[in-house]
Task: inverse folding
C-alpha cells in the first residue's frame, strides 16, 4: 500500500470526514460490474483486500484510505473500423448506392451495440488518502484527469467537497531552477541525478538528463543559456525519493527499504495487516515530508475560508 505517485489537494474548509460518515456516503456510489451495454462504470470499492464485504473506508492513525474502481469495455478502433467498412462495402455492392455520413453513423452505432457485450473489460483502481487534521486529500496518480474522476465522484457521494489543488506562493519551476543553479536543495532535500530542462523561448525544445551529475558544467551552461528546470529528481532524509514537476506532481515516489521492512515487521504474516501497517507508516512519513517540501518550495498559498 505504498503510493507510487502523488497529487496533493487542499480542503478549503472543514467538512465531516469521520469513517462512519464517509463509509455511508461511499456506499451510495459503490463500484459495480460493467453491464453488457454500458461502456464503463465507476465507483468506490474496498481499498484493502479483494473481498466485496470489506469496508470502503480504511482508517488508521487518523488517516483514511479510499479507492475508486473503473471498469470499461474496450473495443479496439481498428476492429470497429474494419467491420464497419465491410458492412458499408457490402451495402454499396449489393444495393449499388453510396453510403453517406448519416447512414454510416447509424451503422456504426448498431455495430457498437452488437460488439459491446463481447468487448474486453479493463479494470483500474485509483487510491486516495484523506488526512482530515492536515486538510489534505492525496491521490495516488500522476494524471489530474484520474484524480478529478475520483474527487468528482467523492463530491457526488458527499454532496459537497470544497477542495482545490495545492497552490504555492512561488512557481515551483523557479525554485527547482534555483536549486540546480546553486547545486543544492533545502529542508533536508537533496538533488539526485535526473532533471528536465525547458527552453523559455517560444517553441523552444527540452532536454532530459538521466544519470547525470546536476552540478556539472554542462548543466550549468544550459541554465546560463536561459533554460529552466521543469522536472527534478529529489531525495528526502534518506526516507523517500521522487521526481517533482512544475505542476506539483510527485512521480515515481519510492519509500526507502528500511521503511518497507519496518512495515513488514509491524504487519506480521497477514496480508491485510501488512497493508494496514504500510499505509499507516506511509502516511506518518508523508505528514512530516509534505510540510517540509511545501516550505522548501516557498510556502503554501492558503485558500480563504468559505
Result:
Amino acid at each position: 500500500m505504498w503510493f507510487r505517485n502523488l497529487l496533493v489537494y487542499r480542503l478549503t474548509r472543514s467538512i465531516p470526514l469521520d469513517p462512519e460518515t464517509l463509509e455511508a456516503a461511499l456506499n451510495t456510489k459503490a463500484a459495480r460490474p460493467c453491464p453488457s451495454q454500458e461502456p464503463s462504470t465507476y465507483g468506490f470499492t474496498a481499498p484493502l483486500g479483494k473481498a466485496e464485504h470489506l469496508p470502503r473506508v480504511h482508517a488508521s492513525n487518523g488517516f483514511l484510505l479510499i479507492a475508486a474502481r473503473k471498469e470499461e469495455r474496450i473495443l479496439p478502433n481498428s476492429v470497429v473500423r474494419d467491420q464497419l467498412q465491410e458492412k458499408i462495402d457490402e451495402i454499396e455492392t449489393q444495393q449499388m448506392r453510396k453510403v453517406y455520413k448519416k447512414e454510416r453513423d447509424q451503422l456504426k452505432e448498431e455495430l457498437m451495440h452488437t460488439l459491446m457485450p463481447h468487448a474486453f473489460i479493463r479494470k483500474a483502481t485509483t487510491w486516495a488518502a484523506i488526512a482530515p487534521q492536515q486538510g489534505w486529500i492525496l491521490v495516488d496518480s500522476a494524471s489530474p484527469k484520474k484524480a478529478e474522476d475520483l474527487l468528482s465522484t467523492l463530491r457526488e457521494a458527499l454532496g459537497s467537497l470544497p477542495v482545490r489543488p495545492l497552490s504555492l506562493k512561488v512557481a515551483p519551476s523557479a525554485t527547482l531552477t534555483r536549486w540546480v543553479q546553486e547545486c543544492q536543495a533545502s529542508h533536508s532535500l537533496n538533488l539526485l541525478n535526473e532533471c528536465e530542462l525547458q527552453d523559455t523561448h517560444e517553441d523552444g525544445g527540452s532536454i532530459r538528463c538521466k544519470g547525470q551529475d546536476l552540478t556539472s558544467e554542462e548543466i550549468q551552461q544550459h541554465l546560463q543559456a536561459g533554460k529552466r528546470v521543469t522536472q527534478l529528481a529529489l531525495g528526502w532524509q534518506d526516507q523517500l525519493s521522487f521526481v517533482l514537476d512544475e505542476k506539483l506532481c510527485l512521480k515515481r515516489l519510492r519509500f526507502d527499504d528500511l521503511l518497507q521492512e519496518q512495515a513488514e515487521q509491524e504487519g506480521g504474516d497477514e496480508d491485510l495487516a501488512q497493508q494496514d501497517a504500510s499505509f499507516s507508516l506511509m502516511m506518518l512519513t508523508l505528514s512530516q515530508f509534505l510540510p517540509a517540501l511545501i516550505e522548501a518550495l516557498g510556502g503554501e498559498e492558503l485558500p480563504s475560508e468559505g
Remarks:
- The longest helix spans residues 271-296.
- The longest strand covers residues 63-74.
